[in-house]
TrEMBL record:
Keywords in alphabetical order: ATP-binding, Cell cycle, Cell division, Cell shape, Cell wall biogenesis/degradation, Cytoplasm, Ligase, Magnesium, Nucleotide-binding, Peptidoglycan synthesis
Family: Belongs to the MurCDEF family. MurE subfamily.
All copies of domain Mur ligase central, residue ranges: 110-305
Binding site for meso-2,6-diaminopimelate: 379, 403-406, 456, 460
Pathway: Cell wall biogenesis; peptidoglycan biosynthesis
Name assigned to this protein: UDP-N-acetylmuramoyl-L-alanyl-D-glutamate--2,6-diaminopimelate ligase
Organism: Flavobacterium cerinum
Principal subcellular localisation of the protein: cytoplasm
MF term (GO), any: UDP-N-acetylmuramoylalanyl-D-glutamate-2,6-diaminopimelate ligase activity
Residues that bind ATP: 112-118
PANTHER family, per database record: MUR LIGASE FAMILY MEMBER (PTHR23135), UDP-N-ACETYLMURAMOYL-L-ALANYL-D-GLUTAMATE--2,6-DIAMINOPIMELATE LIGASE MURE HOMOLOG, CHLOROPLASTIC (PTHR23135:SF4)
Length: 487
C-alpha cells in the first residue's frame, strides 16, 4: 500500500485533521466505488457535488477524505485534508499514486475543435509502423500498444489517464498520443502530466453548452499551451485565426503548419481525388490515402510532430503515404450499384462544411449529393439551424433526422434545425425522425454514381435515446441497405 503523505506530493494543502502517515488502498472520486482503506476525493462536478457523499464514502470504508470545505461533523479516526481545488488535487494524487507515468513517456496532446481524433489516431498508427511501442488516448478507443480498451470520454478523468499511462509504461511504450478536450483542460484532468508536445488544430463553433462564451472556449484551449514547459514543442495551425493566439504565452518551442500562409511545415494540395491526395510538404511530394483539405491539415500536423520527435523527413513522408483513414472519419464504400456512401463524425457546423466542401471538390456535378444529418440532444442548441442551413445549401437533398437525442424529443431538435433552412432550399429538405428510416430513404433516392453523406455519428456504434443506448452503426446500416437495394 502507498502512504497518503506520498500521494499528496505537489498538492496545495490548506489544513489537515488527522494523520497523513497512513497506508491507503486506492484513490476514488466516485463514492460508489469506495472500498476499505481508500481515499475519497470530493469533486465539485457539473452534475453533483462530491462533498454531499463524504459520509457515504466513509460508511463504505474510506479512511481519508480530500475536500475543499471541511465537513461540519468529522468522524473519529478519519483523516481530512482540505485543499483549494479537489480536481487539481486529484490530478497530482493520481500521477503520484501511479508513479508519475507520463514522465516516462513522450506524451503529445492534440487539442482543437476538429481533427483531434484523426491526428492522435494516425500518429499512433505512424509510430507503430515506425517500429515503436505506442499508446493512444482518444474519443474512439484507448490503446496500450496492441491492447484495446473502450473509451468513455474524449479526455478521461485523471485517475483513468494515469492508470492507462502506467499500463503503457509497463508495456514498454515509448510514446503516447492523447486527445485533449476543452472539458478535460477546464476540469484539470491534464494537470500534473508531462507533455513533450502540444498540437492545435482549429477552433470553431462547439461546446457552447458548456463554455458560456466562445472567448472562454478559446482561452481554455490556450491555457493548455500556456502550461507547456520550455522543453516541449507547441505546433499550431497558422491558417486558423486562433492559431497564433495559442502561442502567445507559451514557453514551449513554437512551430506552425499551414496550407495558405508561411509556416515551418508548409503544405500544398496538388490533386484531390476519392482515392487520395497528392500533396507537397516542404517542397517534397507525397501521395496519401486520405481525402480533402481538412485531412491535408491533419497530415501536416502529423508530419510536423514526427519531425519534432526526431523522425527523418523522408521516413516521415514514407510513413504518411501508408496511413489509413480512421473509423468514422470520411469513411466510404462504393456499392455494387455504384453509389458512394460516406460516413463522417462531422457534428459541428465547421466540420460539416469541411466534409461537404471536400465532396464538392471531388464530385463531377453529374450526380446528386444526398446528406443525412441530425444534431445531438442536451447539447449546444445554437448550432442546429446553422448545420441545417449548411446541409440544405450544399446538398442536392438534405434529410434531417435524429443523432443522439438523449433526453430531448427528437422532433424538437429537428424543429430547431428546420429554422435554419432558407426559403429557396425548402423543397430540398425532408425530415424523418427515425435515423435508420432516414438512411434507407437516402439509399432509395440515390441513383448510380450518386453520393450519400451520413454525418454526425461517425465511429459511434450506438444511439442514445432517453438515457438508453441502442445498437446503431451508420456504416453497417448503410452497407446492408445498399446491398438489399442492389438485390
Amino acid at each position: 500500500m502507498t502512504a497518503l503523505k506520498d500521494i499528496l506530493y505537489k498538492v496545495a494543502i490548506e489544513s489537515v485533521k488527522g494523520t497523513t502517515d497512513l497506508p491507503v488502498g486506492k484513490i476514488e472520486f466516485d463514492s460508489r466505488k469506495i472500498e476499505s482503506d481508500d481515499v475519497f476525493v470530493a469533486i465539485n462536478g457539473t452534475v453533483s457535488n462530491g462533498h454531499d457523499f463524504i459520509d457515504k464514502a466513509i460508511s463504505l470504508g474510506a479512511i481519508a477524505v480530500i475536500c475543499e470545505v471541511m465537513p461540519a461533523v468529522v468522524h473519529e479516526g478519519i483523516t481530512y485534508v482540505q485543499v483549494k481545488d479537489t480536481s487539481l488535487a486529484l490530478a497530482h494524487m493520481s500521477a503520484n499514486f501511479y508513479g508519475d507515468p507520463s514522465a516516462k513517456l513522450k506524451l503529445v496532446g492534440v487539442t482543437g475543435t476538429n481533427g483531434k481524433t484523426t491526428i492522435a489516431s494516425l500518429l499512433y498508427q505512424m509510430f507503430k509502423k515506425a517500429g515503436y511501442k505506442v499508446g493512444l488516448l482518444s474519443t474512439v478507443k484507448i490503446l496500450v500498444d496492441n491492447k484495446e480498451y473502450k473509451a468513455t470520454h474524449t479526455t478521461p478523468d485523471s485517475l483513468t489517464i494515469n492508470y492507462y499511462m502506467n499500463e503503457m509504461v509497463n508495456e514498454g511504450c515509448d510514446y503516447c498520443f492523447m486527445e485533449v478536450s476543452s472539458h478535460g483542460i477546464h476540469q484539470k484532468r491534464t494537470e500534473g502530466l508531462h507533455f513533450t508536445g502540444g498540437v492545435f488544430t482549429n477552433l470553431s463553433h462547439d461546446h457552447l453548452d458548456y463554455h458560456p462564451t466562445f472567448a472562454e472556449y478559446r482561452d481554455v484551449k490556450k491555457s493548455f499551451f500556456d502550461n507547456l514547459p520550455k522543453t516541449a514543442f507547441a505546433l499550431t495551425n497558422s491558417d486558423d485565426k486562433n492559431g497564433p493566439v495559442m502561442l502567445q504565452n507559451t514557453k514551449a518551442k513554437k512551430r506552425t503548419y499551414a496550407l495558405k500562409t508561411y509556416a515551418d511545415y508548409r503544405g500544398q494540395i496538388l490533386e484531390n481525388q476519392l482515392s487520395g491526395l497528392l500533396m507537397k510538404i516542404n517542397e517534397q511530394e507525397v501521395w496519401v490515402r486520405l481525402i480533402g483539405s481538412f485531412n491535408a491539415y491533419n497530415l501536416l500536423a502529423i508530419y510536423g510532430v514526427a519531425i519534432e520527435l526526431g523522425i527523418e523527413s523522408q521516413e516521415a513522408l514514407r510513413l504518411l503515404s501508408e496511413l489509413e483513414s480512421v473509423s468514422g472519419r470520411f469513411q466510404f464504400i462504393v456499392s455494387s450499384g455504384n453509389i458512394t456512401a460516406i460516413v463522417d463524425y462531422a457534428h459541428t457546423p465547421d466540420a460539416l462544411e469541411n466534409v461537404l466542401k471536400t465532396i464538392e471538390d471531388i464530385r463531377t456535378k453529374n450526380e446528386q449529393l444526398i446528406t443525412v444529418v441530425g444534431c445531438g440532444g442536451d447539447r449546444d442548441t445554437t448550432k442546429r439551424p446553422i448545420m441545417a442551413n449548411i446541409a440544405s445549401t450544399m446538398s442536392d437533398k438534405a434529410i434531417f433526422t435524429s443523432d443522439n437525442p438523449r433526453s430531448e424529443k427528437p422532433e424538437a431538435i429537428i424543429d430547431d434545425m428546420e429554422k435554419g433552412v432558407e426559403p429557396q432550399n425548402y423543397k430540398k429538405t425532408v425530415s424523418i425522425v427515425d435515423r435508420k428510416q432516414a438512411i434507407k430513404t437516402a439509399c432509395q433516392l440515390a441513383q448510380p454514381n450518386d453520393i450519400i453523406l451520413i454525418a454526425g455519428k461517425g465511429h459511434e456504434t450506438y444511439q442514445e435515446i432517453q438515457g438508453v443506448r441502442h445498437d446503431f452503426d451508420d456504416m453497417k446500416i448503410v452497407k446492408e441497405l445498399l446491398e438489399q437495394l442492389n438485390k
